Amino acid sequence: MSQEFNIQEVAKLALIKLNPDEVKKLSKDLEIILSHVEALSKLKIDDSEVTIHPLGIDLTLREDEVENGLNHDESMSNAPEKQDGFFKVPPSME
Amino acid sequence: MTDLNKITIKEAHEGLKNKSFSAHELANHSFQIAAESESVLHAHLILMQDEALKSAQDTDKRVLKGDMLGLLDGIPLSIKDNLNLKGNGTTCSSKILSNYISPYDATVVKKLRENGTIFVGKTNLDEFAMGSSTENSAYGPTSNPWDPDYVPGGSSGGSAAVVSVGSALGSLGSDTGGSIRQPASFCGVVGFKPTYGSVSRFGLIAFASSLDQVGPFARTAEDAKIIYQAISGHDPKDATSLNIERKDINEGSSARIGVVKELMGEGIADNVKVEIERVIKLLEAEGNNVTEVSLPMTKMAISIYYLIAPAECSANLARFDGVRFGLRSGGNTSYEMSENTRAEGFGDEVKRRILLGTYALSAGYYDAYYGQALKARSQVINEFSEVFKEVDYLISPSTPSTAFKFGEKTSNPLEMYMSDLCTIPANLAGIPAISIPTGVDDLGLPYSVQLMSPELTDISLLNFSSYVEKIVGFNNSPTKWRKKP
Fold this sequence. Notes:
The complex is a heterodimer. Chain A has helices at about 5-15, 20-35, 70-75, and strands spanning about 80-85, 85. Chain A is about 30% helix and about 5% strand. By secondary structure, chain A is mainly alpha-helical. Chain B has a single domain, classed as Amidase signature (AS) enzymes, CATH 3.90.1300. In chain B, helix 2 crosses helix 5 (about 155-165) and helix 9 (about 300-315) crosses helix 12 (about 365-385). The radius of gyration of chain B is 21 Å and the shape is globular. Classes of the chains: A mainly alpha, B alpha/beta. At the A-B interface, helix 1 and helix 2 of A face helix 9, helix 10, helix 11, helix 12 and helix 13 of B.
C-alpha cells in the first residue's frame, strides 16, 4: 500500500469543497486511519475469495412487474428546483 | 392501574387485550414521558403526537369490536431518523436532508404500520449513522438517561435512550458496525442486530450496504423478538434480502458457550472483564458448558471495517448532490453547486469517511485497500464458521468500556472507532448478535454482555437471551435524567 495521499485530489473526486482548516485537519485524521489499516497489507490472503454478501447469497433482482409506485409529482416532491416537470440545475459548463 | 413506567411490550399487549388501559392512555403516557425527558435527553428529533393518538384510537376501536389484537397493535415505538416514514422528515441527522420529506414508507415501517404500531417519533443519530456517541448529529447530541453528562452511544443513540426512559416501549435502529448494540449497552436496554439480509433495507438510507442491518431496541429480549418477527422476512425490493429458512439451535439442557479470547484482552476495561466473568460464572452454575475460543481475525476487524464501510459510504452518499432532493447551495455550474452543497451539508465525520472511501476505491489503490479488505472479510467469516462447529453461542463484552463523557473521544477519530471493537466482527460475518444489560458500574452506568450465534439462528439467539436475562436478573431503570434541571 502507498502512503501517498493528496487530499485535494481525493476531495475533487468526492465532489466536496474543503476549506484550508479542513484540509489540515482531515489530512492528519486520514493519515492516522490509513496507517492503522496498513496492518491488513501484511496478511497473506491473495488466494482468498472476496466477500460481497456475507452469507454468500447471489443478489437477486425482483420480477420486472408493473406496480403502483411513486407518481411523477411525488418523485419530484423534494426537488430543490424544478421547471416543467424536470429537475432544474445550473449549467454544466461555464 | 398498571404501572406503565416499566411495562414491556408483552405486558402492554396483555393490558390492551384485557382492557386494563386503552391504547390512547398508553400513547398518552409515552408522550408524557417524552415531554418530561426531551429537554434533558434530546432523543427524538420529531414527535408525532397527533398521528399517534389517531392510530391509538383505531386500536381502541378494534379492541371494542373484539378483534384479535396483534402483538404490536397499539404499541408505541420510535423510529431512527434514517428510515423513511411517509409524510414525515427523514434527516439522517444531517443538514443535507434538513428539508427532506419521505414520499414513501421503508418496508420495516410499512410492516409495523400494518401491525397497528403507534409511531411516537423519529430518533436522533450520528449523521448518516456514522459515529459511536450521537455527538455527530447536526441537530445536537442526545444524552445518556443514566447520567446526562455521558453519551448514549451511537449511532442509534436516540433509539436507545427513548426505550431506556420509556417514551417508547421499543424502537428501530440500524447497525452497521455496532450502532444498535453499542448504544443499547450504554443505555441499559436490549439491542439486537439480526442476520444480514433477514430484515429489509428498503427505505433505510444506505450507509454501507453490505453491513447495514435494521433491528430492534426493547426492554427485554422477548420484546425484541416480537419486533424482529414483525419486521423480518424476504423483500423483493431489497436485492440482498434473504429468501431462505431460518435455522434453530437445539442446545438441549445445556448450551455450549464460547468466550471470545480476543475480546477479553487488550483494549477492554478491567471492570468490564470482571462483569463478563461474573455472567459466565452464572451460566456455568446453571450447567452450561463454557469454553474459551479464539477468533484471531477479530484483531483485524476495525481495519477491515474502516475500509469497507467508508468505501461503500462514498458510493452511497454520492446521491446527495443537490440535484433531486435535500440541500442545494449556490454555484455557477452544476459541478460547483454539488461541491458547495456537499461542503455545506455534510459534517466532519461524514466528510472524513467519504474521503477515506473515495481514496480506497480510487485507481491504483483499489486492490490494495478495498480488495484486500474484502478478502480479509472472508477470513473473518471462515473463522466464525469453524468456531460455531464447536459452540452454540459466543459471549463477549458489547463495548470495551461503559459509557464515556461528551468530548472524550472526539479529538482522535481512531479512538472513537475503537469503541466498536467488540461489535464490528458480527457485522463483517453477517451473523446475529445482541447486547443485554447485566448490571451497573461504580458510577451507575450500565454493563452488558454481547451474545452471537450462527447465521439465521436469530430466534434461537433471542430465546437464549431471554434465558440469560432470567439468570442475570437485572431490571434497573435510569433515574438521574429526572434530577437534571
